[in-house]
């Protein structure tokens, strides 16, 4: 059970890192009758990208941290905190698995590391779930809002699905350890 939790936690940690770095949080939606699409727009936490005809990809980092809208600043902060906590939880889980092997340490040391890893994985899973679901809800709300022009409508990007899967793995790892 500890090894399975460690694997789930490790994959969840890598997924959290990937979701944070990926530029595909919001992708352009093609809702018009136009079947020929020349470019796709990706919006992430750190940069915007434009893919032209699926051949050329051009990305640009956001110019200033101070010029970002407050929701994007909050999403960045939560995901960075989640990355740090995921790494800490994974390292704690490794120490807990090491201590669970026959050694001279008492059972208190083993249970303390195992419980700490479980709580940290649960917190991380919840921390990843908040910004990913927040973004997903905003995308769905704007997509069905008739006041939003068609060129500004976005769809759920791959980073959101990676984030939801990572959150599920982290929560499962935390439950296993607890």
UniProtKB/TrEMBL annotation:
Residues that span the membrane, as ranges: 74-97, 109-136, 156-177
Membrane topology of the entry: Multi-pass membrane protein
Any one Gene Ontology molecular-function term assigned to this protein's record: structural molecule activity
Keyword terms of this UniProt record: Cell junction, Cell membrane, Membrane, Tight junction, Transmembrane, Transmembrane helix
Domain of life: Eukaryota
A Gene Ontology term for the protein's cellular component: bicellular tight junction
Family the UniProt entry places it in: Belongs to the claudin family.
Function per UniProt: Claudins function as major constituents of the tight junction complexes that regulate the permeability of epithelia.
Name the UniProt record assigns to this protein: Claudin
Lineage: Eukaryota, Metazoa, Chordata, Craniata, Vertebrata
Gene name of the record: Cldn8_1
């Amino acid at each position: 059970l500890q090894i399975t939790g460690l694997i789930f936690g490790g994959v969840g940690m890598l997924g959290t890192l990937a979701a944070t770095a990926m530029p595909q949080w919001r992708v352009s939606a093609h809702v018009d009758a136009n079947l020929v699409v020349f470019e796709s727009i990706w919006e992430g936490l750190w940069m915007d990208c434009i893919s032209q005809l699926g051949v050329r990809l051009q990305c640009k980092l956001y110019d200033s941290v101070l010029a970002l809208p407050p929701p994007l600043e909050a999403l960045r902060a939560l995901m960075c905190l989640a990355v740090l906590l995921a790494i800490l939880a994974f390292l704690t889980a490794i120490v807990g698995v090491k201590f669970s092997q026959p050694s001279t340490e008492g059972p208190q040391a083993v249970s303390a590391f195992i419980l700490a890893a479980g709580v940290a994985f649960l917190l991380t899973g919840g921390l990843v779930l908040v910004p990913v679901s927040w973004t997903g809800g905003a995308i769905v709300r704007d997509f069905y809002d008739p006041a939003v022009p068609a060129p500004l409508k976005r769809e759920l990007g791959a980073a959101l699905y990676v984030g939801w899967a990572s959150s599920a793995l982290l929560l499962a790892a935390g439950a296993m350890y607890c």
